[in-house]
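Please produce the structure of this protein holding flavin-adenine dinucleotide.
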Amino acid sequence: MAQPKVVIVGAGPGGLAAALQAAKAGAQVTIIEKQAAVGGRTSTLHQDGFKFDLGPTFFLYPRVLEEIFASLNLDLWSEVPMKRLDPQYRVSFGAGGHLDATPNIAEMEQQIAQLAPQDVGGLSRYMSDNRVKLQRFRPILESPFQRLSDLMRLRFLPAVRWLRPWRSLADELGTYFSDPRLMIAFSFQSKYLGMSPFKCPSLFSILSFLEYEHGVFHPYGGCGQVSQRMADIARQMGVDIRLSESVTGFEFRGRRPVAVQTDAGQYACDSVVINADFAEAMRTMVPDHLRRRWTDSQLAKKKFSCSTFMLYLGIRGSYDQLPHHSIHIAKDYAKNLREIEQDFVLPEDPSFYVQNAGVTDSSLAPAGCSGLYVLVPVPHQKLNDETGGIQWDEATRQRFRARTLEQLKQIGVEDIEQRIITEKMITPADWQSDYSIYRGATFNLAHGLDQMLHLRPHNRFEDLDGVYLVGGGTHPGSGLPVIYESSRITCKQMLPDLGLDCQFIHRAQAGQGRSTQSGAGANTSNGSSTTSVQGLAPGHTPQADTVDCASPVAVTKSGPTNKALVSS
Ligand SMILES: Cc1cc2nc3c(=O)[nH]c(=O)nc-3n(C[C@H](O)[C@H](O)[C@H](O)COP(=O)(O)OP(=O)(O)OC[C@H]3O[C@@H](n4cnc5c(N)ncnc54)[C@H](O)[C@@H]3O)c2cc1C
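Below is the modeled complex.
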């Protein structure tokens, strides 16, 4: 094949990461992005001199992106300067008390001794158990799942017993902590997946472990800056990024797209990578009759994550006592979650999250000002034919804005209203209409065991030929580290399908790429990155005998020990 043409629908973090690796392998890559800027939900909102992260603010487990950069002969830490936060965040409880979460476990135990003396020792046990759990699970998170039998592969068997399908995340945490506040402090992270800890599978206890063990990072300029840098590098590698252009569909030959259609034209392709929200992309881009498993009626029966109500507030002055990240848990958390997931009503006493990034990063607001990002988990949008649901009309928007600002008093933000200079609000209806997210479910398909692994839409998409998925809607799931991981899994399938080499991905994953600074210790200073990507010219090295790059065993056989698979 001449240089294969890969068209990527969407410049979210998954699409950008896939573009970098496909370009490195030698493909001719075009990204088509509907918005005027790159990054998708991980982009930067610019307003009146303020910069806000649109979505992600917690940059966790940099290891995956670090390895992807290493596979391109780049160093993540100099390309995207970041600071490891300590304390990572404050979690305050409507039921009383708070914790300043720190990776210093001894200090954490002291705080636990004050809050719930009977639970001292639980944290150390939790950390050592989850260290093993993550080690067992990594091969699963790093591998494709096309069918049930994939889960039965020998190397996955040690992990299967950790799945504990009968146990929720909340029940799992209950085996370490008897105080409900501690159970919540180590399980609210399921909200990163848009799920209640009472429903979320127990395997996700690794989420809070990742924070304590591997750090919570703030990329200078915000998480959107990571996307921006990835796009700059992609352009330098020859990727054509077309902004403000919307994919409307595909020209199919059978089930294989041979061209991508947009509102501006048509692009011939050998492979398509869909990074746009999975369910919305299916609904709007692929005719229903061509789909086998993921038809509109099947999608309507799936479970979706919660949504978020957002306020981005540019304010006069700053709240210097407010930590970088604050999470406030409603007094009756179980009721709060029921309102969101079962009753589909706006919470009366909502839990919420506030980012006050100005205490770490002065580049985000004009002098003398600072920005607050406020996120409230709320129900996603029901389908039109379902009764009930929330109509986000102007009166509802203003009522919930007022309730949210009132809630901020619980974390000491008393006088916000008169300090607001500029603001933006995003409701679930806006996520759906302006950001093309099915039902406004910001964290995609829910992450129950019935919608994970081989039961999630496959990275090599099962309903069509030559189509691959990347991002939160495919395996392994939502959240930046696993979204970046999805790009590796996808590329390790797509590149050999196109006759391209993907061993550079395996080599970096096995620690054989450019040596980089340890993620856990990184605490770099602010500064702009000017690293050139000369020498990254795509090396097209098609393999005569294409190996199954999706199988890490291939690498283990051909190279030295695959560290990525044997160490945590
Ligand atoms: C409010 C919020 C907070 C979050 N917080 C965190 C966090 O702290 N940490 C974390 O790890 N994760 C977080 N996430 C989850 C997740 O990391 C992000 O949502 C992430 O950006 C999802 O990446 P993605 O690659 O799946 O695609 P997206 O970011 O959704 O990008 C998809 C892209 O496709 C484009 N697109 C859609 N339709 C078309 C079309 N027809 N034509 C062309 N382009 C199209 C979109 O415009 C978009 O740019 C958060 C998400 C949200 C919404």
